Description:
Layout: E1 2-7, E2 16-20, E3 25-28, H1 37-41, E4 56-58, H2 64-67, H3 70-75, E5 82-84, H4 86-116, H5 128-135, E6 138-140, E7 146-150, E8 153-159, E9 167-175, E10 178-184, E11 207-211, H6 222-239, E12 243-246, H7 252-262, E13 273-276, H8 279-290, H9 297-306, E14 315-317, H10 321-327, E15 334-338, H11 348-355, E16 362-365, H12 374-379, E17 384-387, E18 390-393, E19 397-400, H13 410-417, E20 426-429, H14 433-445, E21 450-453, E22 457-460, E23 465-468, E24 471-472
Parallel strand pairs: 3-4, 4-5, 5-6, 10-11, 11-20, 12-15, 12-16, 13-14, 13-15, 16-19, 20-21
Antiparallel strand pairs: 1-2, 1-22, 2-3, 7-8, 8-9, 9-10, 17-18, 21-24, 22-23
Helix pairs in contact: 4-5, 4-8
Amino acid sequence: xxxxxxxxxxxxxxxxxxxxxxxxxxxxxxxxxxxxxxxxxxxxxxxxxxxxxxxxxxxxxxxxxxxxxxxxxxxxxxxxxxxxxxxxxxxxxxxxxxxxxxxxxxxxxxxxxxxxxxxxxxxxxxxxxxxxxxxxxxxxxxxxxxxxxxxxxxxxxxxxxxxxxxxxxxxxxxxxxxxxxxxxxxxxxxxxxxxxxxxxxxxxxxxxxxxxxxxxxxxxxxxxxxxxxxxxxxxxxxxxxxxxxxxxxxxxxxxxxxxxxxxxxxxxxxxxxxxxxxxxxxxxxxxxxxxxxxxxxxxxxxxxxxxxxxxxxxxxxxxxxxxxxxxxxxxxxxxxxxxxxxxxxxxxxxxxxxxxxxxxxxxxxxxxxxxxxxxxxxxxxxxxxxxxxxxxxxxxxxxxxxxxxxxxxxxxxxxxxxxxxxxxxxxxxxxxxxxxxxxxxxxxxxxxxxxxxxxxxxxxxxxxxxxxxxxxx
Length: 473
């Protein structure tokens, strides 16, 4: 009875954990490693386990750092079920196909250059066909349903409040008459966030595997964050420029649209034309609109009173590349919401190229920016960006709205953990070392046994001790 930490160990992306008993192996998440080129190159490395030995996969949510290598897993020979919430399944149809499309296009572009150098062509990480095969393996499970996964292992999904369909996973493992209950937090949502309900509280566990993304910081209150967003909009209006908002297609974009819709009159947003320039975000917003049963009480009231809570006047959906290119001819009065959220791909890079050198441009950063990404460079005050081999000087004003994060902050993480009655031991994952170490120390002050597992470490679940690679304690 073991737990293997293969991903998001001492880093944020690439979530992947393996529960192994004497008779079965179950994977929790199979995510992409994101960041700089060296980080992303690790995605093509062989899986650190025998793919054919995996009996089932449990997916916590649709974000690619948790789901993005599922098509590669299937391509590598996996033939079992992938258990996920119905809303996660709907979002994965969008996200995994988009990721596969990008893989194919980027490999095609790379191979054209390789051909000119008489080099052998490369294969994409996975294709649209691979993504389709992975999607057909998804088995949907609603919140609160006890589900037998393999003999000796049951699970129940609980609402994590992070994005639509995001899950905390309760697992019960029985072997040789001994039972252990493990709770995987997945990505926990920010308490009080718009649209979705707060993360569910769980009271019993023998081990908690908990994210630590913001274990070293507090978010601004939602009221303060909305005020800060309003002030950024006002500042940009005075400078008569455009506003660029890099936003994750799933979660962050919907929160932004919801907030702009709620404050449309108060913030005089009729002065702006808002472009949602992301086909994936447009599709994801439609999924959010179809799953009103998952909204919190306020969002449900808005939905019942006025219909779709994400729509407002002068909002334009930009589906095609030609429509996106036309936006770049606008020099003033546009709010452009586009992916990717970390500025490392997608249409936002084109908008940065056409705008960030302008002194009247404003960039509003609304989410986590991994090391090595252009978004992180903007947050850290870089003077230039390198885009498609060209150095673009940054003259724009950059605003960072930490309170819009979809992740729980330090207070939220501690409050969620402290709902457990028996102070179970904790393995911290999904965090950079600085944030993880702060949360680690705070939990130890509560007399909690805490580990920060190293990559490829193995925890024996019978006596709760590391038997390979170990951890930072």
